[in-house]
Amino acid sequence: MRKVAGIETAGSLNILFSDKTGTITKGKLEAINFIDGAVNEYKTFDDIGGKLGDLLSLSIHKNTLSMISGEGTERRVLGGNATERAILGYAMNTECKAEVAAVGNIPFNSTNKYSATQVMGQYDLSLIKGAPEKILQRCSHYYDKDGKKQPFDMKTLNAKIDELANRAIRVLALATSEDALGEDALPDSNNWTLVGCLGIRDEVRPESVTAIKEVKGAGVQVVMITGDRRETAVAIAKEAGLIDSDSNLMLTSDELAKMSDEEIKEKLKDIRVIARALPSDKSRLVRLAQELDLVAGMTGDGVNDSPALKKADVGFAMGGGTEVAKEASDIVILDDNFNSIDRAILYGRTIFNSIRKFIVFQLTINVAAVLISFICPLIGVASPLNVIQILWVNLVMDTLAALAFGGEPPLERFMHEKPKRRNEPIISRYMMSEIAVGAGWTFILSLAMLLLGTLPKGSLTSFLEQWGLLRDDMAAGFAEQHAILHTAYFAFFIFIAVFNAFNARTERTNLFDNINKNKGFLTVFGIITIVQVLMTYLGRGILSGWGLTPLEWLVVLIPAISIIPIDLIRKAVVGSGKKD
């Protein structure tokens, strides 16, 4: 957690824009086959051989930012991005025999979708690799098995690429040009020669399928944003469970660019996949979602993702991503796993629900205390709670209660609630009913204990004293009038708050629902109970603690515990679980 508010906001997400690689998929790319210009397929590099194998080795080893380290079984591919490591891994057990030197380089970026290196020596070529739609249209020939140039027909190869894409296999094309690289630009010609295409597979994480189902069940729309071509992206989205209806839309970055903001807003609820996406697409989608009053989340790992991460209501940076992305985010997903985003949403909802529970508990005591403190002076009766007692009440309802409710467990049923609206008030109608009933009942019982009945002198007092349920204060020689009454009332006020805490912590009729998962709740309120009993006997004049007899404890506890059946009746009337 980089920003405290991020986790709570995560619980209110309406829409989540998620990367594919490493988040929905395992992020362990593997080149699984090679297709030459004649649409011959090779599973391993060793199957290729000949001059074509030498040209492929040159294209792989010399046009990359990755490198091979170690010997024998310890050989590993290091550096570069995941795609480059996968490509170099395909030829990891071979060495480039060509004696060439690199004289120019264009690194891969998500905007251009290609990388290139110019080499001189045994071969004077520009080596190019990238998205097929960027490369194939510039190729006029391909290399056959003997390394000779043959006329190139793109239709058959495109059909094969589409077939691989429908199997969620991403394809990269490799080509050469005899023209030199321009300044940060590919050769401006259409006479390139195709080396072939590599198929790269990234398996969908099994746990991501479950997590996406849970997130969708929580009312969060998930949109996968990827640099893959449409067919590959759609295949992965179907496998991950993102696409489940004929109304779902799959758009490319080019299609998105042609649409106006208003058109996107109208169709946003149906969009599930953005293919061949650019970093600018992410920022635009976040902005449009927010203009629709949706709470938007965004994942990212690159430098170019940082504007979208910063703009989103919740930015999820990947633990394996750049420091720039992490600095722009609210939450860092250390394992780069969509399942962790699912957990973040659950914990966000748990914290929000815990805050609401605490507010119900706190306002119930506050409203009751204010009513008593306001009404008593109006009818000529001194406030039953002195300053020190009020400080103890504040400690109970603020610090200690926050510790108790802060330990509430994350429950899977929270993921079946609707996401909170951006403008939704913190206090719902359900909470208002709980506060009103709890505070009202506490106020009524307080009036009954303090004010009903009169002594012969005409001074207001309690029927409890009149009926002998509480001792005769003056006859017992206590230091203040109604000392036992005030002692009993102080204990009553704390204990009705303790019993009402059980009402506040769950919307269900089973007040002990999952209480074993929050042992701190029982510990805190157990300590409050023990301290209150000690105050009752040891407080004396400071805390009006003159001790109570067993009969007087019954007078305190029976009204206090009555708050539980009263709230159960309210839950039955309002409807258990209807919290809005």
Walkthrough of the structure:
There is one protein chain. The protein has 580 residues and is of the alpha/beta class. 46% of the residues lie in helices and 16% in strands. The chain is built from 22 helices and 18 strands. The chain has helices spanning 4-10, 50-62, 82-90, 132-135, 154-166, 206-217, 230-240, 253-258, 261-267, 279-291, 306-311, 323-328, 338-378, 387-405, 429-450, 463-466, 473-476, 483-504, 519-538, 540-543, 550-561, 563-574, and strands at 15-19, 30-35, 41-42, 67-69, 76-78, 100-106, 114-121, 125-130, 139-143, 149-151, 169-177, 192-201, 221-225, 249-252, 271-275, 296-300, 314-318, 331-333. The strands form 3 sheets. Strands 2, 3, 6, 7, 8, 9, 10, 11 and 12 form a 9-stranded mixed sheet that branches. Strands 14-15-13-1-16-17-18 form a 7-stranded parallel sheet, with helices on both faces. It is elongated. The two termini are 29 Å apart.
Short description:
This protein has three domains: 4-25 and 204-336, HAD superfamily/HAD-like (Rossmann fold), CATH 3.40.50; 30-201, Calcium-transporting ATPase, cytoplasmic domain N (3-Layer(aba) Sandwich), CATH 3.40.1110.10; 348-574, Up-down Bundle (Calcium-transporting ATPase, transmembrane domain).
